[in-house]
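FAQ: What does a ligand-bound record look like?

Like this one, built around MF3:
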Amino acid sequence: MHLKVGRNDPCPCGSGKKYKKCCLGSEKASHVTPAEEFYRQYKVRLKTPEQIEGIRRCGKLVMQTFDIVKELIRPGVQTEGIDRVVHEFTVKNNAICAPLNYHGFPKSVCVSPNEVICHGIPGEYTLKDGDIVNVDITSILDGYYADCNQTFFVGTPSKDACKIVDVTRESLRIGLEQAKPGNIINDISTAIQKYAEGQGCSVVREYMGHGVGLDFHEAPNVPHYRSNWGNVPLVPGMTFTVEPMINLGGKEVRVLEDGWTAVTRDGSLSAQFEQTIVITEDGFESLTPFEL
Ligand code: MF3
Ligand code: CO
Ligand code: CO
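The answer part, i.e. the structure of the complex:
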């Protein structure tokens, strides 16, 4: 990786002086590694091959958890039943459920049916034929985090259910096509927004993808719409999620009294898909792979 530091940029050595007034042309700058330089500029921690392998192993466990969850989803199942299965399987595999007690979140997994956009708290709600339901699993294995979510049909899907789930899955696929060195976060964001809005759907603004791996939520933010936050270059070793939340109706969000459950203001259906990826020399690798 090579990062160009402008003459008037802050010096990568951290002195606070301009580069030209400090290390430009001197030997001092060579003590700063490209990863340290990237951290100073963007607060993004680039991962070593060992760290990436740790996140990959955690991602494998997350995908094994999904294999079990998938089989469980059918009409008549309570959302807290999904929580129990995720919790037991994760603990049995010497891992931790990242959501549990995260900023006070009371359960081990987020389960978000129908008009719930994200952060649904598993409870007494019973899945019924025609529902859609998003399950968002984040595990911690040997200190490494992997974060993944998918939206499932319960029984036979309605036309609206098919539409929102198909558009959302495709928006993630199209966004990830932009995940490669030479591009910036905004290339991913813009591709998702163009596609989803082109299909007559809307993009949720309040929640974003995020750096992940050594922590649950790290820099950078990964918005799913074009924004000023998206001016971050994609470089090998970056690990982050892309997790578009797409609504069939308007983009507006309301958070319920429980302080977590985010629903569409207009009550329309909302879907989401999420993967944890690492930027490679020529593109990306999904560390929580499933077919898009
Ligand atoms: N997994 C969610 C994400 O994709 C975050 C859930 S935070 C929780 O970022 F506290 F609700 F679990
Ligand atoms: Co996430
Ligand atoms: Co998640």
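Follow-up question: can I read anything off the structure? Yes, for example: The first strand starts at residue 96 and ends at 97.
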